[in-house]
Amino acid sequence: MRLGIIGAGTIGEVHAKAAEEVGTTVARVADVDLERAKSFAKLYSGCLATDQAKDIFADESIDAVVICVPNCWHKEVAIEALRAGKDVLLEKPMGMNTPECAEINAVAAETGQLLQIGMVYRYSSVGQAAKSVVESGDLGEIYHAKAHLYRRRGVPGLGGWFTTKKLSGGGPLIDLGVHIIDIISWLMGFPTASRVSGKVYSHFGKRMKDYVYEDMWAGPPKLEGNCDVEDSAHAMIHFEGGCSLDLQVSWAINMPTPNMVSAETIGLFGDRGGLTFKLNGEHVDVATENYGHNVDTRILLAETDQFVEQARAFAACVESRQTPSATGEHGQFVLSIIDAIYESSQTDREVELVPRQD
């Protein structure tokens, strides 16, 4: 498979390295910053650089593309790629909102091209192990889940596109929340969401000049830039059938360091058993009952690179023409919940969701 990368930033590099690892040829890269594209291309034999995505779309030798541009351009670039006859691996979030996702899905259906959304944690060792436990039936009926992903001081690229709402669509809810809503929904078999109540808070962007940070992976702060997105989000999501999800995410929150040990926790609770794991962890803990005793089991896992496994799965789908696991419909489902959380926070009321049409 010959692959084009749209966007030569950090996440584009991650996808390219993963693709090369599984034997995919990284043939072309596009970025509005041509010099950055050229530096990227030098890392891959025969890779050509351009500052125009249309050059990749016009290249008939390119089978598929990975789209790694800011969120505000996901819809435009994905639709152009699909209409150009390219299969697409689209980074999360799928779009800025649910209507954008619906537009992308309509074009994917119209063109017949494959569309995979970058829900990469499904391919982690803990994600795969948790899925196996759920499918074994050991948990029984799952009635509640929790998903907590806190960063104490981890606003990405403060003042850049991540913290500018018209470019990103939001803060940690649309950045981190996408991943954990997806993995919980995937583990639970995508139950229909019925209603949502939530609240988002924006405090740290107001104090950009004295913001003390521990991590800023998307580049140094731009103090002359903008920050008009939330820094934390908190929600309760109700599904048809009675199960629920407690969702907590932050880029910045005043949580004492000792509590940060459990700040990255996914949990599923059933009437016969439960499990917990860290999103980037190396084991899954399972609680069950056996012969009248409560039993705890720790499943130790070999380290895997979820981006490599995602690239492997995408390449296999392109070759076999099988529908990817992380579909556009799943991406739209996740955004519908995120939209509802933002609406609930803005209106200070619970929001009912329209049942999806499968």
Please provide a written account of the structure.
With 358 residues, the protein is α/β, with parallel strands linked by helices. It contains ten helices and 15 strands. The strands form two sheets. The protein has a nine-stranded mixed β-sheet with strand order 14-13-12-11-7-10-9-8-15. Strands 3-2-1-4-5-6 form a six-stranded parallel β-sheet, with helices on both faces. Helix 1 crosses helix 9, helix 4 packs parallel to helix 5 and helix 5 packs antiparallel against helix 10. The two termini are 31 Å apart.
Quick synopsis:
With 358 residues, the protein is of the alpha/beta class. 33% of the residues lie in helices and 25% in strands.
What value does the average pLDDT take? 94
Oligomer: single chain
What proportion of the residues form beta strands (DSSP E)?
A: 15-25%
What characterizes the major β-sheet? 9 strands, mixed
Q: How many helices does DSSP assign?
A: 10
Per-chain topology:
Elements: E1 2-6, H1 10-21, E2 25-30, H2 34-41, E3 48-50, H3 53-58, E4 64-67, H4 74-83, E5 87-90, H5 98-111, E6 115-117, H6 125-136, E7 142-150, H7 165-168, H8 172-187, E8 193-201, E9 232-239, E10 244-250, E11 264-270, E12 273-277, E13 283-290, E14 293-300, H9 306-320, H10 328-347, E15 351-352
Parallel strand pairs: 1-2, 1-4, 2-3, 4-5, 5-6, 7-10
Antiparallel strand pairs: 7-11, 8-9, 8-15, 9-10, 11-12, 12-13, 13-14
Helix pairs in contact: 1-9, 4-5, 5-10, 8-10
